[in-house]
User: Fold these one by one.
Assistant:
Number 1:
Amino acid sequence: METDEFILNMGPVHPSTHGVLRFKLRMDGEIIKDCQVVLGYLHRGTEKLAEMKTYLQFIPYTDRLDYISAMPNNYAYVKAVEELAGTEVPLRAEYIRVLAMELNRIVNHLVFMGSLLLDLGASTMIMYGFREREKALQLFEMLCGARMTFSYFRIGGVREDLPEGFIPKLNEFMNDMEKRITDYEDLINGNEIFLMRMKNIGVISAEEAINYGMTGPSLRGSGVNYDIRKMEPYSIYPDLDFKACVYPECDSYARYMVRVDEMRESLHILRQIVDTIPESNVIATQKYGVAPMTGMPYTAQTYFPRIFTPPAGEVYSRIEAPKGELGFYVVSDGTTKPYRVKIRSPSFCNLTAIPKMVVGLKIPDLIAAFGTIDVVLGDVDR
Amino acid sequence: MDPVTIDTTKFKPVRRKPETALEKLEDTGLISTVLAARERKGLILLTTIDQVFNWARLSSLWPVTSGLACCAIEMMATAMAHHDIARFGMEIFRASPRQADLMFVAGTVTKRMAPRVKKLYEMMPDPKWVISVGSCANTGGPYHESYAVLKGVDNIIPVDVYIPGCPPRPEAWLYGIIQLREKIKNEGYGAKWGLNK
Amino acid sequence: MNGAEELKQSLPSSVISTGMQINKPLAVIKKEDILPVASKVKEMDFDQLSVITGIDYQDRFEVIYNFFSYRKKENLVLKVILDHDSPAVDSLTSLWKGADWLERETYDLVGIKFTGHPNLTRILLPEGWQGHPLRKDYDMDTEQFVTIGEDGEDIVSTDGSKLLRRK
């Protein structure tokens, strides 16, 4: 019996594609021969909008790029503008920034685990993951008033100091989370069905991954020890003690394990921050004084001019977002609005490797491999 | 200036017990049904059947999974254990629009995605309702001046309830769902044959 | 000696100038020589291509490549200047596979052609979209709408009457 190849469309509206992403698969029976990724269903034109808004007005747009973990997006943009303008940030503001970013890393990895397991067919983990996420979102709401799209960072600091009662609640959350991660590992890691679906699926070797431009946990799952927090440290990371989690087998299971270990490392970092956060006198009051008109001391934000015009120039700055290397290339021409902002998003560059990973597998394997790349469409399409 | 504190534990909403006979009759809801029936110029028998159909429809609305962007994450959060929408009957999110009767348009509708959203709406069988969630789906939101964004999903499909927010909190989602239930309660004869779309 | 000076020593005819871009060594390259320079850069152990940016100035286009080396932990920035009427430069897909989609995106939004690219088509906007949005002379007033054709592909036009409910 002769069979023909046919083209199957996993369309933009699909429960497992983490958003509106389209795959055109050329199939021979059940085996995938070729995979073409079609993007752009969520392209909103953020880079063009950056040229119409001032530097401060663009910060809420950066939240909506990777909407699951919005704090690192804010930070990448703010860091680029600060490098361009040479602004100094007070020390307590840096501690608060890293606290917010590491908490957001935990939230991101919880959502990753939940949605990966939901795609594989198990609906327990997403319930647990979102339950923990609610507690973390209540912490964020105490901090800045919003649950998901924060706009908490400003150029030169953060918007407000930590409220009262935040640190005890954070300690409660951390103690709880430590036990829960152990529970989740017991539930999932040894499960035979999970192992069969994840081991040796979606293999990509280290040289190929570097050539494709993959970064982040997806690259560390292939044995490459590249963590920007260790390679080009920024903020207060040189003072903190943590390790980059690397696994040498290049398959989906390794990428999953990297993220589970990263959650533990983030808790470790949070504990160090809570122990060593400088007390309130390191905020701008002593160094930067008192505002002339009202007599009130300046808060964690340094003195930020009302009309902010950085000097003309270009800068590219990158951070380790939970999904990979997030970078902003900002070009300024000396006016109040940026001339060009280019966003280097981790999901876009990690997605390049999917056609290579998936040839020769079946469709459920495509979903498992794609789930471990951890793609968010707001980041891919901008 | 001292900050003002309000002690909210002192306020408690108290529902008065109905005392007179008229108040007790009002409390049962029969009067509002009769008045509504008279306003719609329908017979009381048919309006009671309408009420039964409306109750059946609003108690088990099944949504279709059409979350596009950030608001979809809040949709997942609303569907999970903390703020449960399964208690409103939306137990399962159907993947196929042919089996669903409610569409949450959650997220930015770009020009490239717009014909697909319209096709999804046309594939749903009657009676169907649409809730537009978030400011991007209501009017284009923060991306109003962008070249690639449709300025509101009501340019392509008719919308019943708008939920503002960016993204709206799960409590706001639940409020919007309750508003839709109120709207379905007041629908009449024409809804059965989809004549009011 | 940083990466840019090393390049200037080994290929002096291709490098127009060197400098610094806020802590990163910068080298401006002639546009015809980008492929041999890029091969030399890859030999110098810069194995990660981070980002390709295209910028539209009034009188010229610029394409900027950012590289990073894992072993030496150094950065390098290359800049290429193109003329305004028909900007075109060689593609780097033969050396770095990650350049594939980055160049497609630059073509889509800024309009710079990369010769030698295997599949230079639009990636974020649908095929048939008129104009390149990130250019400074893009017309933001005319709205373009997308409908679905017979074989499922997008058709772009400025007439939205089939899609919209009301004028």
Number 2:
Amino acid sequence: MRNYPNSLPRPKGELAKLEAIWAPPRGFKLLTAVNNTYIGLFYIGTALLFFVLAGILALLMRLQLAVPANDLIDQGTYNQFFTMHGTVMMFLFAVPVVEAIGVLLLPQMLAARDLPFPRLSAYAFWAYFIGGLFFFSSLFFDLAPDGGWFMYPPLTSSRYSPAENADFWLVGIGFIEISAIAGAIEIIVGILRTRAPGMSLDKMPVFAWSMLVFAGMIVFAFPAVILATFLLELERAFHWPFFIPEMGGDPLLWQHLFWFFGHPEVYIIFLPAAGMVSMIVPTMTGVPLAGYRLIVVALVATGFFSFGLWVHHMFATGIPELSLAFFSAAGMAVAIPSGIQVFAWIATFAKGRLRLTVPSLFILGFFAIFVIGGLTGVMVAMVPFNWQVHDSYFIVAHLHYVLFGGMVFPVFAAIYYWVPAVSARALSERLGRWAFALMFTGFNIAFFPMHIAGLMGMPRRVYTYAEGLGWEWYNLISTVGAFVLAAGILVCLVDLVLNFRFAVSGTAGNIWKAGTLDWLPNGMYGTRSIPIITSREPLWDDPELAGDVQKGRYYLPGASTGGRETLVTSPVDAVPQYLLQVPGQSWRSFLAAVFTAAFFLLLTVKLVTLALVCGVLALAMIIAWMWQTDPGENHPPVSIGGGIKLPVYVTGKISHSWWAVVILLLVAASMFVALLFSYLYIWTVSPQVWPIAEGQPMPELLWPIGSAAAFIASSAAIAYSGVMLTKARVWPLRLTLLFSCVALATALALEFHGQWDSGLRPTASSYGALVYTFFTVEAQLAVAALIMCIYTVARSVAGMLTPVRRATYDNTMLFWHYTVGQGLMSLLIVHGFPRIAE
Amino acid sequence: MIGNSPHSFTSRLLFMLAGPLIWFAHFSFIYGAAGFGGAFGLDAAAIRDLSWGATVTALAAVALVLWRTAHDSITRGLAILSFLAVTFEALVLWMVPQ
């Protein structure tokens, strides 16, 4: 590293070659773009579109509530509007926009050429874009969901919501959440494995830390809501009674699962916004962030503590006093790490001298609004107060102060701050100030009176109210404020139209004089060369760095393999490990997303055959896309400069794909834990439907024992096939892989037969439904494992699986062992617990 | 120039997160005891005793983490916050009448 920066001249044509390799597609082929800059901008643009659409719904609702007994919007339409407003804002704007900003900025901030799985990013984006637009368009056919953004049963059960409106929510949101999880996997692996050399975790920008916590929270929180939507859809479509009390179900199970996701969701949205604030504040004050480590601690702690708060939303449901008090205490405890961050920002202001730019104004607005929202959050964490204001407009005011203040203001600060990094022109300071003034004033005029209206007893979600209740003025003022707020957003959009000119090179550049790598000169390839990082604000500490990087004086100044590539470094200390060959643009990821979206949407409207065709096509596209990956050692180790030669292909635990599979398995494990919770929860409320109490026979032990033996045999076979692969014995390898498939299918068949033979049916009671859900969840994993196994055999037949080129096998094997482990756990619970509980 | 192995990353990560993980285990236990204890035949006093036991164990475990991390400020900070959060839950056991 001592030789860097290398002042020797770079070879002629090196930069031109790099540019040619990373050149974006043109015309309609832009749909095939996978580069993080394009996908990030597409993502942000789409998220802002949904923000505007949901905002228009809000304005219509405010018009309806402006005067008492208004008949502008009928009750049914109003129900659809508030459901879509909440759902679109939470699922189609808030999470995607921060994920999008991460996709756009993280590679630049970490000096990576791209994220490690660019096609996965593209797939996640297009799935979100197509799924989101179809979901929103349900409004125009009177098919939009109308059960509120948290869709509580029994209101959303087939009994009370027989039309397809609720199905749109359940299938659409489940699908969009899968897209968010794909993005989260990309972000975790990207942050941990593609940082510039020397950027150890304690030198990583706070935004990257916040995105790491954000993505980690998605991995553990989202499976709960995916399971919840799956259960409710099973109940609606096939009458599996999870939430029907007279059949042993409980509607409160939905609330537990939903809020186990829903409360962390608030922090999932807030933490990246806090990360953006932590990037902007030091730049605007001209000094390093005060308490960097404390902020990191606060981010991680908030991520954890937020999982202990879900009952916070269920204080009015009759939960035992002691449990309520535990959650109340946790609700107050989480205020401590949030407070740490606020004080660290204030300390940074005190250390430096704040420039009152537009991003600074939005940050100051965020402080004021978020602190008020945080304080009312502590108020509603107190059980007696919560009971008083539950489901009132006080809650509407509180949640908007937290979410709009805590997330939307920082996002607008981020837009004004980072536009110069991707645009030839910065946004207008004058228009920006107007936008801020209108948004800040409008927001407070709109939402502050709602506290009072709520305390006066105005319930949320009413489409109108009678005269003489004393709510009239507060509602009228709120409506005026909403339009002022909308005017502010409109000014910002006008500013974007007038001044945003997308550029990769030739951007407005580092106009704020920031110190982090996101302000290095860029191309489609990211930075020209990848610098060595020795501090948290490298551009401040080494004023020559930007020039040296641009002149190719650091690592990887060209394309060592002749294709797209990025440096993979170790997760803690960022030591170079290998060169990852990054896949380029492709129709496959786009078409896979189109067909996946079509599969889910057609299923929603009950066009099953067509849905299945699209499902098969989606699978075919994914397989075609995967076929090009796992290239093997197609190059000898290559030089990245500084005398360092790196391999271009690795397998096993060091490989980025192994990391992705491990994270995917954590998602599966989270879903399994949520299912286990559901099983125990239903048992506590309805033990009478368990077979022993009902006097119904359990399956004979022969069946689960046979199933377990088949599971273990399949795992043993796949492990043995690994030995065959190492020894390059092709036929034994293929045969053992196929035997694994047969054994796994046998394990499932034996379990299913045992349950069915005992007379248990999923429609009979919540117990039956849960038992068959364990089976169904396991079967889903097993089908995926079988496809992966057959795919591995196909690669062996094609000569693309060798003792060296084996990442495909390693990933399949990992997935397989997890599937078997979960299968054995399921057997233990389903067959063991009822016998113990006896 | 292969850097540190994923194994060392996993152990470092787990140690860094030891405080919050202990908090999470403690929280799951006391909420599980309060929520499911009755179904397993435990009375209110037994649930409280178990929760006190878990709290003392959790506080001792976090204290151990603090003692072992003299130089890692992030691990220490997380452990201190976790200690506070577990203490908050102990206040519930102390203050909420049976």
